[in-house]
Amino acid sequence: MHILKKTLLATAALALVSVGTANAASDGKRGMDGQLNILYWQAASILNPYLSGGTKDINAASMILEPLAYYDETGAMVPALAEEIPTPENGGVSDDLTSVTWKLKKGVTWSDGTPFTAKDVVFSAKYCMDPTGGCNASSNFSDVDSVEAIDDNTVKITFSVAKPFPYGPFVGTTAPIIQEAQFKDCLGAKAPTCTAANFGPIGTGPFTVTEFKANDVVVYAANDKYREEGKPAFATAVFKGGGEAAAAARSVLETGEFDYAWNLQVEPEILAQMAAAGKGTVVTSFGTSVERLMVQATNVDPALGDKRGTIEGGVHPFLNDPAVREALSRAIDRQVLVDAGYGKAGQVTCNVLPAPAVYVSTANDDCKVQDVDKANKLLDDAGWAKGSDGIRAKDGVRLSILYQTSTNGVRQGTQALIKQMWAAIGVETELKNISASVFFGGDQSSPDTFQKFFADIEMYTNNFDGTDPEKYMGSWTCKNIPSPANQWIGNNMPRYCNAEYDALVAEMGKTASIEKRAALAMKMNDMLMQARAMIPLIHRGNVSAHSNTLLGVRMNSWDSELWNVQDWTRAK
């Protein structure tokens, strides 16, 4: 038991300090501050985070749906729908580490006025654990054997193995509680068909949905059933989506049209010029976000039909060659990408797991220095010869890459630079950018989502909530590969499948020592990096901006940036 305590305390201590304004609790009446205007240049496409891996969808939903506990801006767990965080000391975690018991806050109601009970928690687990439902947060429920309601205000989660970190289920905004009454007919394969529920979930959070237009706007009203008196301070909120990052920054920093703008992937000198107008403040925090290239392992030839982009469709015609993958990585000058697009809000990284510090491997640091000569030699030795047009080929297969990402000025700048770098080693690159609302959307009918990944290379940023990487590293197990069988939901975009890797994930799930957990996490990171299942580029700081009249923002890289929106107020 003392080992678990040590693990939890050490994990909490690993949190990175974020920068933001101090908390400002409401001392007035609910709704007294009028309307809150939020701009995410990636529009929300769904309000059920279990059916989307897009940060913008998860954050938009976090204003309505709540988990049992959040991660705060330091990475520490804080109760939401729970009375307290279960620990061995308070009896919430069993001595054998196979169960965790949560005490729920009493008197909480859903926004429709019905009671929130332990049965809703049990149902939420059933919903996500259904193997045919394609739940995006399935890794949160690894090794869960049962979830049972002891009484209306007590939930016991039992694991099939000892879990030294038992806080996967229902901690963080990626795994909230949904109402059984609303979603009871939406289990399994029916989950994506429940449009009314997915677009307008009933929640326990500070706001309710009054209007939802997919890929455009969400309009909220203060939840008059919210349990905290006087909160939220805003009567209404608008979560506007679309456009691009520079326009979003301008709307807060220069025009003052919006109160909050998220994910300002804008050239640093331009942000500084905007901030000089004096209407808003840029806030930054470093967590675990990495801008990376996902390297397709499967064949994406459209002629394969339903097998396109799946394990069943076969391996990629040239990216299955380790020499090609390594050459693509070595040809990239990551410092140039940081300087051009991120400035102080970016750092070169060679890992997909860049933080907390105890988990950071140094085994891949040779990627920090561009080596075009070695990249060319790798391709020469592997038999990829340059043709008369300068493009390499082998056995009739050309090194011609379709490289996709979301529409964003910095990302298109990064694409252009990498295209030039790859041209220097004889690789042809076609650039494609897709509207963020589509790319990160949950529309299974679209061929352009980042989960379908019908391209050779795709680029985006991902991270994990909290400071423990167990479920994040579990994203790249074989079972998490998106496919038609799981509604194209899953986080293993490169289609990486390795039994040895899966075994390490399972071992971490039953390892208590923080030192041993760190060693396992680093080993998994190194396997992914050395297989070039993905090519990390930049450890990104989260950069957003808020109006100088908006108080209470606590910039959070470990959970939703809107995690404490109930505490936001307007300066008088």
How would the blueprint of this fold be written?
Layout: H1 2-13, E1 35-40, H2 55-61, E2 69-71, E3 77-79, E4 99-103, H3 118-129, E5 144-151, E6 154-159, H4 180-183, H5 195-199, E7 207-213, E8 217-222, E9 236-241, H6 245-253, E10 260-261, H7 268-275, E11 280-295, H8 322-330, H9 334-341, E12 346-348, H10 372-381, E13 385-386, E14 392-394, E15 397-398, E16 400-406, H11 409-423, E17 428-434, H12 436-439, E18 457-462, H13 470-473, H14 499-508, H15 514-530, E19 534-547, E20 550-551, E21 569-570
Parallel strand pairs: 1-9, 1-10, 16-17, 16-18
Antiparallel strand pairs: 2-3, 4-6, 5-6, 7-8, 8-9, 10-19, 11-18, 11-19, 12-19, 13-14, 14-15, 20-21
Helix pairs in contact: 6-7, 8-10, 9-11, 14-15
Protein architecture, described:
The protein is built from 15 helices and 21 strands. Helix content is 23%, strand content 20%. The model is unreliable at 1-26 (pLDDT under 50). It is an alpha+beta fold. It starts with a helix and ends with a strand. Strands 1, 7, 8, 9, 10, 11, 12, 16, 17, 18 and 19 form an eleven-stranded mixed β-sheet that branches. A three-stranded antiparallel β-sheet has the order 4-6-5, with helices on one face. Strands 13-14-15 form a three-stranded antiparallel β-sheet, with no helix packed on it. Strand 5 and strand 6 form a beta hairpin. Helix 14 (499-508) packs antiparallel against helix 15.
